[in-house]
Design brief:
By secondary structure, the protein is an alpha/beta fold. The protein has a domain of about 160 residues: Rossmann fold, CATH 3.40.50. About 35% of the residues lie in helices and about 20% in strands. The chain is elongated, with a radius of gyration of 18 Å.
């Protein structure tokens, strides 16, 4: 059914791999939020079967572990060996290190997903491989979580940090998330997804860990050291309240999904 997902890249891929996360793969794996079960339920319903899904740019497996609750098998690939090494193992998830080469046989998959990563990829190269591996009626789904919401005070501190302190440290592609990937040309017959949010019940330590998993945070630290990040974390702590208090963190999901034309 599948070839080796760690096999060499397709030579038609046009965008070089920009590795923003390998150096802090452990932080990424520990502090990224979990996608809601309702997302994977919806993806299973709109797909023409649930035998096999391919999760592209899986990172440390946040999407793959959700898919396997609804799909019999999951192939999960990422160009970062360090991130793949952090992904939780599962008997029905086959991990591989690759950017666009899935190792899946022609027409064998019912679903291809890209979670929080479409902005890093070459959409043409992705769609070529997705079109090859998907069976007729198969679905390509790309989704990303947008700005978090906690409270008025926390959100104000967070947005200033995100937009001003981190400002020019964000890779240019990051801003594609803010418009819900609508400026990325995807040749799909668009489905209308349900409104979905991610919810986490987090402590201050978990929330600050999340902000330290950002590529821009790591670029800021490399350029200016820890001082600006520590200053932000002090402001955040004052807005949050007692550090041990758990607060509900909500991220709205932007979803684009449909059958490839």
């Amino acid at each position: 059914m599948t070839r080796d997902p760690a096999s060499p890249e397709t030579p038609r891929a046009t965008r070089a791999f920009a590795d923003h996360f390998s150096a802090h793969a452990a932080t990424y794996a520990s502090f990224r939020p979990r996608y809601p079960a309702a997302l994977f339920h919806w993806l299973a319903v709109v797909s023409p079967g649930t035998a096999l899904a391919w999760d592209v740019a899986t990172g440390s497996g946040q999407v793959a572990t959700g898919l396997v609750t609804r799909f019999a098998r999951v192939v999960a690939t990422d160009a970062s060996a360090e991130q793949v090494a952090r992904a939780p193992r599962h008997a029905r998830i086959a991990y591989g290190v690759a950017q666009y080469e899935s190792g899946i046989a022609d027409g064998a998959a019912q679903l291809v997903t890209v979670g929080q990563a479409l902005h890093w990829l070459d959409a043409d190269a992705l769609c070529r491989e997705a079109r090859r591996v998907l069976r007729p009626g198969g679905v390509l789904a790309a989704f990303a979580y947008q700005h978090s919401r906690v409270s008025a005070a926390v959100d104000l501190v967070m947005r200033h940090h995100h937009d001003v302190t981190l400002g020019h440290y964000w890779p240019a592609e990051h801003h594609l998330i803010e418009d819900g990937y609508r400026t990325i040309a995807l040749p799909i017959d668009e489905l209308v997804p349900p409104p979905l949010d991610i919810h986490e019940d987090w402590t201050l330590a978990q929330y600050t860990g999340f902000t330290r998993s950002w590529s821009a945070t790591q670029r800021l630290i490399a350029a200016r050291g820890e001082a600006p990040v520590l200053a932000f974390e002090r402001e955040l702590a004052a807005a949050w309240g007692a550090g041990g208090v758990r607060r509900t963190v909500t991220w709205p999901l932007a979803i684009r999904a449909g059958e490839l034309r």
